[in-house]
Design a protein that fits this description.
The complex is a heterodimer of chains A (about 220) and B (about 400). Chain A has 2 domains: about 5-185, Orthogonal Bundle (Cytochrome Bc1 Complex, Chain D, domain 2), CATH 1.10.760.10; about 195-220. In chain A, about 45% of the residues lie in helices and about 10% in strands. Chain A has 9 helices and 6 strands, in the order ααααββααββαββαα. With about 400 residues, chain B is mainly α. Chain B has 2 domains: about 20-280, Cytochrome Bc1 Complex, Chain C (Up-down Bundle); about 285-400, Helix Hairpins, CATH 1.10.287. Chain B contains 15 helices and 4 strands. Chain B has helices at about 5-10, 15-20, 35-55, 65-75, 80-105, 115-135, 140-155, 160-170, 175-210, 235-260, 290-300, 305-325, 335-355, 360-380, 380-390; strands at about 25, 220-225, 225, 230. In chain B, the strands form 2 sheets. Chain B has a two-stranded antiparallel sheet. In chain B, β2 and β3 form a beta hairpin. In chain B, α13 packs antiparallel against α14. The longest helix of chain B is centred in the middle third of the chain and has 33 residues, at about 175-210. Chain B starts with a helix and ends in a 12-residue tail after the last helix. The chains are: A mainly alpha (about 220), B mainly alpha (about 400). At the A-B interface, α1, α5 and α9 of A face α4, α5, α7 and α10 of B. The structure holds protoporphyrin IX containing FE.
């Protein structure tokens, strides 16, 4: 019976991801049909993320291939497999990943030297630090407040990176294009087919409805 | 001799079509609530066809199930369309069926002489839940796996035989890929066969007694062998149904193209991680159409009583024809008690669905209990409030 209780309790357990996060998600607007951004994102992934992460389900995709992302076994860190990212944009929300990558701050107590406001005590090192620069907390400690604060309300930049903040956000935006695309490439096809199919059905419906009304009249 | 004559001398096909289409009469005042039956048939065909193509590529083994689904989504030409038609169809089925059942409840379609028709519908509803649940397991994601564990534990709660049934359904000492393979068999053979047979019977039962209508009255007056205000199924209803089915497909495909995951309600985010028996997901919640029944389970403090209440909430549907003792069928002519009760029922059912998807809290518990009470009161108090209610006499009839 204890297993049952555990499972039933779990069924209603609140979202630990949401509970662990200390800041609001940054707004993100991705136009998946912007293939140039998807390609730039794939290149960014190949340079900065593929060192550790794999894209298992996307390796046969032409854009993924062109960026030089290859099929290989996942790396293991401290006995844990480093997660595959091909479906992560759907498993977590894109906003989650987008904000996560911006939310590192200097934390001397952490083994990697940095901590994160979206996934507290994350095992992933601050790999984009050279690019982005460094942030520190504005406050002594971030409390779990409601409503959650925005990122800029709790951290500030202490060291510039290789690119400006604007360029860095653009890079992340491209990366999100790629991760969303790679998680479900069908979106591109779906959006291009939809208007045709739906307008066909709309016209067909109007015609069939007129036929119905005329038929109905003959029964008055 | 013409071919049709040749065939008709052997099998009376024309007679059959006359009997069920051209000379099958239905009330002219059937409104849009009466479209959901044909919508359900359309979705059923969609599920069978898309399912047929999915099975060509899907592999029901622990190692390959998850990646075979991704293979369908990416490598199979239009595989994504096939899969999204199937997943969206599952949710559409329940939207349509909830409307269909609500219509029957509103207009008293379960009452004499349609009790057997209603019972066949109730069996269909249970079969659909079983079909949807076994299908949900097949992609073998985290939610598939953990939801299976939860449901199996609920089965184990059944006092007599629960343990044995759970064992047989799992085929193993705990949920494993043996279970997955078994669920595949249930999902593609057993439940579809039951559903098809029941839909066939459902239509036969319907044609034996004919359709009810929003007024819930049967005309006494017959003109030229046709009840007053009735129209032939063909061409009247066929033309109407074809037009509205097109509209339905338009809405359905708009979802398939623009929002197939429906923000995690039609395909849950957690199911994009492969099943992992060692890692419990952070957030488990029931799929939306099972949510009301889970909310009932959770509302009762004792787990075994909760499971009993959940079963009871479904059993009560079967008893509905014998709980209603109003002299009229349709809510249009029932009195204030019945109208308020129906309102409470709708609020409770929708409320249970919402509450069942929320993480636990003080208010969720309180609301869950209130809605559970509302749901059960609608059924259990019906013999009383429907008997002592006022009612209006429908035009042109004396009673049921
Ligand atoms: C696969 C699922 C189902 C299919 C394909 C189906 C199909 C149909 C069709 C085509 C009709 C005639 C058109 C209409 O009245 O909408 C009908 C009528 C009816 N169905 Fe269903 N049905 C299904 C499930 C159910 C369920 C779950 C119930 C109730 C628990 C139910 C109860 C009824 C009743 C009572 C009628 C007669 C309604 C009236 O004449 O007012 N059906 N069904």
């Amino acid at each position: 019976m204890s297993v049952v209780s555990l499972l039933l309790a779990l069924l209603w357990a609140s979202d630990i991801l949401a509970a662990g996060r200390l800041v609001q998600y940054e707004p993100l607007d991705v136009e998946i049909t912007d293939m140039a951004a998807v390609k730039r994102g794939a290149d960014f992934f190949a340079t900065h993320c593929h060192v550790c992460h794999t894209m298992k389900y996307a390796v046969d995709d032409p854009i993924t291939k062109a960026a030089g992302i290859v099929d290989r076994d996942p790396l293991v860190l401290d006995g844990h497999e480093i997660p595959d990212l091909s479906l992560k944009a759907l498993e977590y929300s894109p906003e989650h990943i987008y904000t996560y990558l911006q939310a590192y701050y200097v934390d001397e107590d952490s083994p990697t030297g940095y901590n994160n406001l979206v996934m507290v005590n994350t095992k992933m090192p601050n790999v984009l630090q050279a690019l982005q620069g460094e942030h520190r907390l504005l406050v002594e400690e971030v409390e779990k407040n409601t409503p959650l604060p925005r990122l800029y309300e709790v951290i500030y930049k202490t060291k510039p990176g290789q690119v400006t903040s604007e360029e860095f956000y653009d890079n992340l935006d491209d990366l999100m294009h790629y991760l969303i695309y790679a998680a479900d490439p069908s979106e591109v096809d779906r959006l291009s087919i939809a208007p045709w199919v739906l307008s066909y059905l709309a016209i067909l419906f109007i015609l069939l409805f007129v036929i119905y009304l005329r038929m109905k009249k003959s029964y008055e | 001799m013409s071919l049709s004559k040749w065939v008709n001398q052997r099998v009376p096909v024309s007679d059959f079509f006359d009997h069920h289409l051209r000379q099958y009469y239905v009330p002219k005042n059937l409104n849009i609530w009466y479209l959901f039956g044909v919508f359900a048939m359309v979705v059923l065909v969609n599920q069978l066809l898309s399912g047929f193509f999915l099975v060509m590529y899907y592999t029901p083994t622990g190692d390959d199930a998850f990646s075979s689904v991704e293979f369908i989504m990416r490598e199979v030409p239009y595989g994504w369309l096939i899969r999204y038609l199937h997943t969206t169809g599952a949710s559409a089925f329940f939207i349509v069926i909830f409307m269909h059942m609500y219509r029957s409840i509103m207009y008293g379609s379960y009452r004499k002489p349609r009790e057997i028709l209603w019972l066949s519908g109730c069996i269909l509803f249970l079969s659909l839940m079983a079909e949807a649940y076994t299908g949900y397991v097949l992609p073998w994601g985290q939610m598939s796996f953990w939801a299976t564990k939860v449901i199996i534990s609920i089965i184990q709660l059944i006092p007599i035989g629960g343990e044995a049934i759970a064992q047989w359904v799992m085929g193993d000492v705990s949920v494993s890929e043996v279970t997955l393979h078994r669920f595949f068999a249930f999902h593609v053979i057993l439940f579809p066969a039951i559903i098809l047979a029941m839909v066939f019977l459902h239509i036969i039962f319907l044609h034996c007694v004919g359709s009810n209508n929003p007024d819930g009255v049967t005309p006494k007056q017959i003109i030229d062998g046709v009840p007053k205000g009735y129209v032939p199924f063909h061409p009247y209803i066929t033309t109407k149904d074809i037009a509205y089915v097109t509209l339905f497909l338009l809405l359905f495909l708009a979802v398939v193209f623009y929002a197939p995951r429906m923000g995690g309600y039609f395909i849950e985010a957690e199911n994009y991680a492969p099943a992992n028996p060692l890692v419990t997901p952070a957030h488990i919640r029931p799929v939306w159409y099972l949510s009301p029944f889970f909310a009932i389970l959770r509302a009762i403090p004792s787990q075994s009583l909760g499971a009993v209440a959940m079963v009871l909430s479904l059993v009560l549907l079967f008893l509905l024809p014998w709980l209603d003792s109003s002299p009229v069928r349709s809510i249009r002519y029932k009195g204030p008690y019945c109208q308020v009760a129906l309102g409470i029922f709708v609020v409770s059912f929708v409320g249970l669905g919402v509450v069942g998807n929320l993480p636990p809290s003080h208010w969720v518990t309180i609301l869950g209990r209130a809605f559970t009470l509302g749901y059960f009161s609608f059924f259990l108090l019906m013999p009383l409030y429907s008997r002592f209610d006022r009612f209006k006499r429908p035009p042109g009839v004396s009673g049921l």
